[in-house]
Structures are given as structure tokens and as C-alpha cells.
Design brief:
alpha/beta; seven-stranded mixed β-sheet; two-stranded parallel sheet; 13 strands; about 15% strand; binds 4'-deoxy-4'-aminopyridoxal-5'-phosphate
């Protein structure tokens, strides 16, 4: 029975993390996994999250009863409002609703499940490159036709916008287009607002379906409104769409699996039927979601004082990332590292696509114990004032190899 099961490939980012932990050499630096680290290189529990957890621990009325299949209402409605803006017209018209799911990945999986089973969609497009899990999630949910649209241009170290538009123009009707709402992973390059308008125009013309993935709201710019601009623009243009929201990064709640899947329809009546189908999907997969993390987020988003404290935390994280970008670029330039390093500071979010190739990235690991993905992606949060000189010198030496 089990004997014929073939060995699956390792998952790069988890394998890299383990290799880092097992490596006895010092100094070593982990720029692989996508998690925030403070300036001492430690995981950071947001003070507002800690405070909320303490309040919850003292609440004798909280219990461990099941949540409803679609999760905590106070969470999903606040999460949806955070994404679309509290005064969005879709709320007064009853066109949008959210569903609590298992973090961003679970949101994408539920979305893919719905699009495949209910709408019978079969083709999806991801940016080239993208967060590698998009492909696995969508094919596991039943999509047979996986395609890419051009995105990264290694020559300019920016977006190949013409290529992207050309690919969207030739996509078949009803293709699902996965779009990173902000802080594109892995490149750190987002379209400008003008470019988003053009993307929307082509998608409307070609009847393509927008599937937004919002894993970094607030993290990208420190401003939750700005980071939701693209999604809100598409909503204002009247698209029916889905958006997967993760609260792993912006609340530092990685292992609590807090996510929301937002549905925006263009007619109020369909929402009831859609919800009923999602309910059956969830029931058949994991029955109902966990409470703890979603309750933390709901408590914070629904309390003006805590909400402000959370926004302050986001600013601390995004500012630190920004300052490490500046420091890394500064040092690379001071060392006279060949090539332009402007992209390090123009990219946003947690990740930077350094432009190092697979061989160079492996060299960084083998010779300098600086762990990074083969694609050349580094997590800026892995840098801190103590290791940035070391990493810059490692990049310099690697390029001059
Ligand atoms: N989408 C993108 C683009 C991501 O970078 C991530 C996190 N690495 C996710 C979705 C989902 O992460 P999670 O399931 O941990 O919320």
C-alpha cells in the first residue's frame, strides 16, 4: 500500500530554516523565512497583542466552545472593513462579507475551492515569480491549467509592466489572476497606482477574475489605507472579486492561523447562496476555525484605543525594515559592490529581490552562512545593526568571486 508512495520534494523555505538552526557556525544569519525580527534578531510579540492576551486570560466568560463554521463574526466583519475601508459603498449595499479561515493560505485554499467547484474555473495565473505556494494551493483545489504572467525584469530589477499587460491581454476569459495586494512576494515591487488602473482596465476588457492576496497590509508602507488601495480601486470599479487576508505578519500571529476571505459580489442576493456553499466547504474540510488568534485581532480592531496601538506597532515594524534597506544599500555602495543597488530601497515590504542568482545565493550560504532563497530573495527583517556589515561584505565577496 504505502510502499509505492514517491518521495516528495522538500519545501525550500522550511528546509532552509532547519539548515540554519542546525548550523553550528557563528556568525550565521537567517534571511530565509518570512517572519519579523526585532533589532536584536528576536521574534517580536506586538505589545498590543500581549496586552490583549492578558485581558483575555482574565476574562472568566471566555470558554472553549466551538465557533460557528464561518468563524467569529466580530473578527470577519472588522477584517473585511479593514480591507475595504469602513465607509465603502459595498457595506451599505450588502455586497461584501468575510469568512474567518486558516490564515492567508487557508483563505487562498477556500477561494480556490470555491472558484473551482462553484464557478468551474480551471485556469489561474500567477506572477513570474510569485510566492511559491500559490501553485500548490490552486492545483490542489482542482485547477488544471497553471499559467504565469510576466512580472520581474532582471535587467531593470523592476516590473516588466509591458510584458505583464501583454500576458493579461492574451489570457482566456474567466482566468483567475492572482494579484499581490501590496508588498509583492518575493520581489518587493508593486505596480504604481497608474499601473493598477491599466491592469484593471485590461482585466475588465478580457473578463478576467481578480483574486487578491493581501498578506502584508500595513507592513508595506506603515499605512493600512495605502496598502489596500489596489483592492479598493478594483471594488470601486465594480469587479466581483475575492481577497485572501493574512494576519500572520501585521499582527505577528504566525502560528495562530488568523485569516479572512473577503467576497465582493455585485448583487446582494447572491451573498446568501455563496455563504451557504462556503459553509459546506469548510464543514467538509475542517468544520470550524480556531478562536484564540481571531479573538485577539477582533478585540484590537474593534477597540479604538487598541487599534491605535496596533497602528503604532505596524509603523515600528515598517520603519525598521525601511531603515535596514537604507543601511544595506549604503554599505553595498560604500564597498563599491558592482551593479546598482537602488532597488534595495525602492522595493517595499519584508522581502527584497537582491538580483543574486541561484549560484551566488548558494555561495552566500556555503561560504558565509547567510541563509537566503535560491531566487536571491532576502528577508530584510533578518538584518539588524549587528549583522548588516557582515551581510553586505558577504554579498560584495560573493559578487566578486
Ligand atoms: N500570500 C503571500 C504572498 C505570502 O507571502 C504569505 C506568507 N508567506 C501568505 C500568502 C500566507 O501566509 P499565512 O498562511 O501564514 O497567513
Amino acid at each position: 500500500r504505502f510502499r509505492n508512495v514517491p518521495q516528495g520534494p522538500p519545501i525550500e523555505v522550511f528546509a532552509l530554516n532547519k539548515a540554519f538552526l542546525d548550523d553550528p557556525y557563528e556568525p550565521k544569519v537567517n534571511l530565509g523565512a518570512g517572519a519579523y525580527r526585532d533589532e536584536k534578531g528576536q521574534p517580536w510579540v506586538l505589545p498590543v497583542v500581549r496586552k490583549t492576551e492578558r485581558l483575555m486570560a482574565q476574562d472568566d466568560f471566555l470558554n472553549h466552545e466551538y465557533l460557528p463554521v464561518l468563524g467569529l463574526d466580530t473578527f470577519s466583519s472588522a477584517a473585511t472593513a479593514l480591507l475595504l475601508g469602513e465607509d465603502s459603498h459595498v457595506f451599505s449595499k450588502g455586497l461584501a462579507f468575510g469568512v474567518q479561515v486558516l490564515s492567508g493560505t487557508g483563505a487562498l485554499r477556500m477561494a480556490a475551492e470555491f472558484l473551482s467547484k462553484q464557478l468551474k474555473y480551471n485556469t489561474f495565473y500567477v506572477s513570474d515569480p510569485t510566492w511559491e505556494n500559490h501553485n500548490l494551493v490552486f492545483t490542489n483545489a482542482g485547477f488544471k491549467d497553471a499559467r504565469k504572467y510576466r512580472y520581474w525584469d532582471p535587467k531593470t530589477r523592476g516590473i516588466d509592466f509591458e510584458g505583464m499587460i501583454e500576458d493579461l491581454k492574451s489570457a482566456p476569459e474567466d482566468s483567475v489572476i492572482i494579484l499581490h495586494a501590496c508588498a509583492h512576494n518575493p520581489t518587493g515591487c508593486d505596480p504604481t497606482q497608474e499601473q493598477w488602473k491599466k491592469i484593471a482596465e485590461v482585466m475588465e476588457e478580457r473578463k478576467l477574475f481578480p483574486m487578491f492576496d493581501s498578506a502584508y497590509q500595513g507592513f508595506a508602507s506603515g499605512d493600512i489605507e495605502k496598502d489596500a488601495w489596489a483592492v479598493r480601486y478594483f471594488v470601486d470599479k465594480g469587479f466581483e472579486l475575492l481577497c485572501a487576508q493574512s494576519f500572520a505578519k501585521n499582527f505577528g500571529l504566525y502560528n495562530e492561523r488568523v485569516g479572512n476571505l473577503t467576497f465582493v459580489a455585485n448583487c446582494k442576493e447572491v451573498a446568501v447562496a455563496v455563504k451557504s456553499q462556503v459553509t459546506l466547504s469548510v464543514r467538509g474540510m475542517y468544520s470550524n476555525p480556531p478562536n484564540h488568534g481571531a479573538r485577539i485581532v477582533a478585540t484590537i480592531l474593534n477597540n479604538p484605543g487598541l487599534f491605535q496601538e496596533w497602528k503604532d506597532c505596524i509603523k515600528i515594524m515598517s520603519r525598521r525594515i525601511h531603515s535596514m534597506r537604507k543601511e544595506l544599500r549604503d554599505r553595498l555602495e560604500k564597498l563599491g559592490t558592482p551593479g546598482s543597488w537602488e532597488h534595495i530601497t525602492s522595493q517595499i515590504g519584508m522581502f527584497s529581490y537582491t538580483g543574486l542568482n541561484a549560484k551566488q545565493s548558494e555561495h552566500m550560504i556555503e561560504c558565509f552562512h547567510v541563509y537566503m532563497l535560491k531566487s536571491g530573495r532576502i528577508n530584510m527583517c533578518g538584518l539588524n545593526p549587528e549583522n548588516v556589515d557582515y551581510v553586505a561584505k558577504a554579498i560584495y565577496d560573493t559578487i566578486n568571486e
